[in-house]
Every structure is written in C-alpha cells, then in structure tokens.
Design goal:
- The chain is an all-alpha fold.
- It is 60% helix and 0% strand.
- The chain is built from four helices and no strands.
- Helix 2 packs across helix 3 and helix 3 runs antiparallel to helix 4.
- The protein is elongated.
- Keywords: Membrane, Transmembrane, Transmembrane helix.
- It comes from Acipenser oxyrinchus oxyrinchus.
- It is found in: Mitochondrion membrane.
C-alpha cells in the first residue's frame, strides 16, 4: 500500500487577517481612522471634577435626592407619617430633576460643536 501524501499548505499564522485571529495586545487597525493621541490617563477624581463642572445640576439633583430620602426615612422611623410622605414626594421631585439634568447634559453635549 502506498501512503497518500497530503499537500502542505503555507503557514498563514503570521498573517492575522487571513486566519481571523485577533491580537489583543494591540488596538485594531481600521482603514481611514486615526485615533487622537491621549495626553494623559484621566483618573476617577479628575473625571468626576470635569463632569461636575460640565453639568453641576446632576450633582445637585443627586444630593437633593439623597437628602430627601434620608430625612424621609428618619421621619418614618420616628412615626411622623405626614412628614415622611412629604419627603418621599420631594425625593420623587428631586429624582425627576436629576433625570432632566442628565437629559439636558446629554443634549448639550450632543449639540456642542466638535473641537
């Protein structure tokens, strides 16, 4: 019996575009797109301060929501049901204000001209 020989294909592992493998150590190459250079990495505190300066009403709304909720729960625990109900209504108002501030911030960012 003669051994059947199979044709040997060229090794294409060096060309990731043909094999479909991804190199996760490098960003993907997209034709016609060059990402802007990063000047520095932005930490949590820097990003928080920047976002607060861009839209301070979100922080005000979040703070108002937390205060109304806390005060309402304290009033509920003390048995002041009327005051507790008023604070829960104030919390809903503050949450609505926060959502409106978020939507306003998104819209203003979307309509801002690109630099």
């Amino acid at each position: 019996m003669a051994a059947a020989s199979t044709p040997v294909a060229h090794d294409q592992s060096s060309d990731p575009t043909r094999t479909g493998a991804f190199d996760l150590s490098r960003p993907p190459v997209i034709e016609g797109f060059t990402p802007p250079p990063r000047s520095k990495e932005e930490g949590f505190n820097d990003k928080f301060i920047r976002k607060t300066k861009e839209n301070p009403f979100v922080l005000i709304g979040c703070f108002g929501t937390a205060c109304a909720l806390t005060y309402g729960l304290i009033a509920f625990r003390r048995g002041k049901t009327r005051q507790s109900q008023m604070m829960m209504r104030a919390r809903i108002f503050a949450q609505g204000f926060t959502v409106f501030a978020l939507l306003f911030g998104v819209a203003s960012t979307a309509l801002k001209p690109k630099q």
